[in-house]
Amino acid sequence: MMAAREILADFPAGGPRGSWPAEEKAAELTAKGQPATVRMDLDSDRFVVVRAES
Fold this sequence. Notes:
Mean pLDDT: 89
Oligomer: single chain
Number of strands: 3
Radius of gyration: 11 Å
Strand content: 25-35%
Distance between the termini: 21 Å
């Protein structure tokens, strides 16, 4: 189970090969001044974008 964190976006784990939408979203948010990182939620089989820990 994941620790409680604010989820900024989420994406299914079964995306097309070579597609990294969660990482792209985290990079976009970070470039806009909102540091973000990607974590895997095993319970829901999804990648989630969360605020990066400071």
